[in-house]
Amino acid sequence: MNALITGIAGFVGGHLAEHLLCEGDRVVGTALSSRWPTGTPPQLVSEVPLVAWDVTSDPSASLLEAAEALSPDCLFHMAAISVPRECGDVMPTPTAEAINVDGALRRAISGGTAVTAASCWPAVATFTHRSRQKVQW
Hints:
Layout: E1 2-6, H1 11-22, E2 26-31, H2 42-47, E3 50-52, H3 61-70, E4 74-77, H4 84-87, H5 94-105, E5 114-117, H6 121-130
Parallel strand pairs: 1-2, 1-4, 2-3, 4-5
Helix pairs in contact: 5-6
């Protein structure tokens, strides 16, 4: 499997990448910075291309190039606000919607790519409802 992981430098994204690599999958990751944080496992640093990208912005040329080269089967959207008080009570806050919902929907790859998103429940409900739209890079 070829996987694109947003928020790969975070706790969940990093552990997911390690697991996928152990399974023999190819991985490309995005984070706010193009530098791996201190303490990142050496396997991630050496085997996973890291592309700087803010998910609230349009994809950069380098991200589009990396995604085209990888041809991902799955997008794991791990760049998310997950703290309940910052995510919203009934509906997602504007920031949570921009990162958790739009960050996945606008970046989902057409043609059958599966999207998995990490979030809080108000944003997941919004994502689930809106994911029926056709989306492209």
